[in-house]
């Protein structure tokens, strides 16, 4: 069932229902991050940076950094936004307590020294044209030679259509809960790379 495709609105509604009735959002965020960790087996011995935006997609990145650290794997957290969701702030603080280094993204940030970049900049709620710091971050990711893992959706992509003015070009996209329709469109395939889905217990409504 987790391999069926859903619209962004279906996903939003299902996520909200699950959080309200079944599983706290903080637990879902941890499950999402663990799903990303388990979807790739090349973490060890690599130079890793996680780019985290201001929404729950960024929170997944903060949670992933903590999971990696507990597994003895270092990563650098790069904040692409000063904003954080409540659950994202919880996992950011938890990662910091574990000793994960966090730095802000700037236009001078050079990502070419990393082996793996994890894209948690923008989630499925985004539509339109990317601007500001997020745009600079996506451009920097695309200029790197790193292996790029997008969490849930390549940042900048429309989750329903797969279209984008500018989006991360991922090597691997780890969809969370259910695959968004845009990920399997002809337009979306330009950005997605390999596609896997991780079931985190969201009930489809």
The second-level CATH architecture is: 3-Layer(aba) Sandwich
How many domains make up the coordinates?
1
CATH-level-4 superfamily name:
YjeF N-terminal domain
What's the CATH class, please?
Answer: Alpha Beta
**Termini gap:** 13 Å
Largest sheet: 7 strands, parallel
The whole-angstrom Rg is 15 Å
| Poorly predicted segments | none
Strand order of the largest sheet: 4-3-2-5-6-7-9
Instruction: Assign the CATH topology.
Output: Rossmann fold
Global shape: globular
What percentage of the residues does DSSP assign to strands (E)? 15-25%
Number of helices: 6
In helices, the fraction of residues equals 25-40%
Indicate the mean pLDDT: 95
The total beta strand count reads 9
- Provide the structure class: alpha/beta
What does this structure look like?
It is a single chain. This protein has a single domain, classed as Rossmann fold (3-Layer(aba) Sandwich). It has 6 helices and 9 strands; from the N terminus they run E-H-H-E-H-E-H-E-E-H-E-E-E-H-E. The chain has helices spanning 8-21, 25-38, 56-70, 86-97, 132-143, 189-192, and strands at residues 5-6, 48-52, 76-79, 101-104, 116-120, 147-151, 172-176, 179-180, 194-198. Helix 5 links the parallel strand 5 (116-120) and strand 6. The mean pLDDT is 95.
Topology:
Blueprint: E1 5-6, H1 8-21, H2 25-38, E2 48-52, H3 56-70, E3 76-79, H4 86-97, E4 101-104, E5 116-120, H5 132-143, E6 147-151, E7 172-176, E8 179-180, H6 189-192, E9 194-198
Parallel strand pairs: 1-8, 2-3, 2-5, 3-4, 5-6, 6-7, 7-9
């Amino acid at each position: 069932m987790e391999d069926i495709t859903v619209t962004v609105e279906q996903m939003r509604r299902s996520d909200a229902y699950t959080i309200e009735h079944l599983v706290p959002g903080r637990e879902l965020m941890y499950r999402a991050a663990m799903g990303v960790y388990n979807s790739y087996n090349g973490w060890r011995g690599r130079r890793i940076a996680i780019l985290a935006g201001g929404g729950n997609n960024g929170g997944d990145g903060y949670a992933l950094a903590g999971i990696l650290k507990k597994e003895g794997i270092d990563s650098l957290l790069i904040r692409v936004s000063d904003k954080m969701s409540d659950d994202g702030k919880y996992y950011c603080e938890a990662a910091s307590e574990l000793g994960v280094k966090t730095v802000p993204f700037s236009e001078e940030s050079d990502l070419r020294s990393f082996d793996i970049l994890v894209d948690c900049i923008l989630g499925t709620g985004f539509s339109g044209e990317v601007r500001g710091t997020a745009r600079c971050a996506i451009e920097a990711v695309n200029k790197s030679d790193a292996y790029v893992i997008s969490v849930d959706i390549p940042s900048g992509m429309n989750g329903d259509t797969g279209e984008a003015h500018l989006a991360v070009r991922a090597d691997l996209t780890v969809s969370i809960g259910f695959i968004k329709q845009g990920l399997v469109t002809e337009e979306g395939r330009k950005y997605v790379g390999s596609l896997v889905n991780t079931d985190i217990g969201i009930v489809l409504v």
